[in-house]
Model the fold of this input.
Amino acid sequence: MAEAPGEAIVEAKDLELELPDMNARVLFGRRPRVRVLHPVSLSVRRGEILGIVGESGSGKTSLGRALLRLHEPTGGKLTFEGRDITHLDEARLRPLRARMQFIFQDPQSSLNPRRRVAASLEAALALRAGRLDRKERRRELEVVAEQVGLPTPLLDRYPHELSGGQRQRVGIARAVITRPHFVLADEIVSGLDVSTQAQVLVLLKRLAGELGLALVFISHDLSVIRNFCDRVCVMRAGRIVESGTCGALFEAPRTDYTRTLLDAIPLPSPQPGWLDGAPDTAACRS
Amino acid sequence: MSVPLLEIRGLEAALVRPPHAPLLRGVDLTLDPGQVHGLVGESGAGKSTVGKAILGILPKAIAVTGGTIRFAGEDLLKMRPSRFFSLLGRDIALIPQDPMSALNPARRVGAQIADGLRLRRGMRGAKLREKVLSLLTEVQIADPEAVIARYPHELSGGMRQRVLIAAAFAVDPKLVIADEPTTALDVTVQKEVLRLIRRMQARHGTGVVFVTHDLGVVAQLCDQVTVLFEGRVVEQGATAAVLAQPAHAYTRALIEASPRHDRPDSGMRPIPEHIITALKAERVHGGEAADG
Done:
């Protein structure tokens, strides 16, 4: 399907992550820690889109944050372009930050509401280009706006003045303006209408191809994953339970869990018997 | 022909403040008893507004400006308020979108399910408790005795939604308005909740207006479907027929924009600009929704 895959950009080997348990009530002393990721291994190559799918609480967002080194892994090894970054400190990570970027679910809350779009993009641009004069900055912004299909007059608006689709384009522009090699997209289309969703995905796919990005695409939506990603990892309770190319995994899922997830998605054409059978009591115990 | 359970004719709604932007522009809809009718469309299509207009719970900024909403023959919009309120929570009930904000966080869930039965059916004491427990069993909640004493935050999202379904069906309503009740749920939980709504609705013979943006949910759950665009009915009919052979280009485009996990290279086609432009133009010329 895709051209010959490039070199591995991000590689996780037996990555483990423990985080403080926010549900525990502690008065004194350390919070107990919960294991969020059991050893997880994956790699993303240049020009490849890797989907990560799972239900809420499966650890997909934590995995994403660990890949970006927003969390420090408690075990295993993480490499970025061949360099071990598992325990790198923030000062030494900073020069790498421009090359590893992220797009979040809701740009409304990740963009500063009191800054015009241009100001937010300039802050990201400074990561890559340092000091540029006003004209040069504006030029860079116009180039990126063009790339993501954002009309340039919108650069001077505030985030709340844009539509959901436009805001997501700003989110994408903010990520690609630093010329990253690795981009993490976490549930970026879940709040959007199907048509806007399609627009955003078509755009991101084109950019990922043009820029040769290693793209990790986190989503709860297997229908989107199948049509957007090259490979997919299915997560459950902090583990990858199944992974493979989209073609293979969707045609012949190997685990019951993946089958259950697939069966649970209603298709936009009637599937006789889909709603038959007694609702499952066990599924609601928690 | 018997009287339809719900008959909406030419429903119009608009913002109260100038410039009085219209939100509904003449919506027609007929629901027979025991049927599930899906209202589907993109954001801004007015699907939730229709649901809220039926229940009389439109935000203060929005007002109904025309049309009729007949419930079992009686116009809800012209009814005396006291009569209208006696119908709400007895003959007409709501399954809301967000169970966390619909449930009172400071009251135990048992008491909240009991409200409708106490106020509308006059039940008290042991009989009331009995009924609440049997409702929770009916919505497949394991260990209902323990659950009635819990607070909403102690339950998972799926459990809360089940509690709300129990509360909605408690009073044996004839009509239930379900406003995107599964949007925030994981797919496996969504499937259970949809099954439950289908089963409760069939068992109680309830008519359901189901608001959703998900064509998949419509395909599996709804007998009839209405496709809305900017407050107007674009297409309406039996679900299987509309989805298999959409008469309107917009419906077709909406289906083609939706990705499917059983087919590669499906979805991902944005609705073409010319379809949107044509729909907006129809509106300007003020004609009826011309299909085709």
Notes: The first strand of chain A starts at residue 8 and ends at 20. Residues 281-286 of chain A have pLDDT under 50 and may be disordered.
